[in-house]
Sequence to fold (225 residues):
Amino acid sequence: DSGVTQTPKHLITATGQRVTLRCSPRSGDLSVYWYQQSLDQGLQFLIQYYNGEERAKGNILERFSAQQFPDLHSELNLSSLELGDSALYFCASSVFSGRSSYNEQFFGPGTRLTVL
Amino acid sequence: DAKTTQPNSMESNEEEPVHLPCNHSTISGTDYIHWYRQLPSQGPEYVIHGLTSNVNNRMASLAIAEDRKSSTLILHRATLRDAAVYYCILRDVENDMRFGAGTRLTVKP
Fold:
């Protein structure tokens, strides 16, 4: 158990819909990262927040957005869903912002999103 | 971003050592070499990282070539639980992690 929790575990929805994925980082971790893992694209970095502020952006679509709240939990919002958005979405957390040689990321169990 | 190259898959026998190679010929002086692994149906987990010197921890050893253009993750005695996809990642202190395809390790009893 990494200490990172993600809800829900599974989500099934229809094209065009909007969903929210939630992540609670490990106690004391200030950074939260979101990743998408699909069969054809592998594990892709989406976005990082550090202490409430956006820190880095990866391959995140404009239809996707995220935020980190004062209690440090984070939400990933996916809208206008398409079949290709079906994937595993992982959240990870770490102590540092990224400016450290040792910045181990602890991953949650993931949310499996199925878009029908 | 500097890129890594790993074999798609490898096989090992249980209780034998495993050497997982990674090539990173375009590594820069500030890039650290990180290894993560992803067990079936789980999120990735940290294994080890290093800069220039070889590193050991309770999970594995990391051997880094003198020119830093390649590295090898060593599992000293593979167990069935070590069957996973192993990712070799380069990152400097500013970079976020960019995963490649990794090496799928199969451990045979």
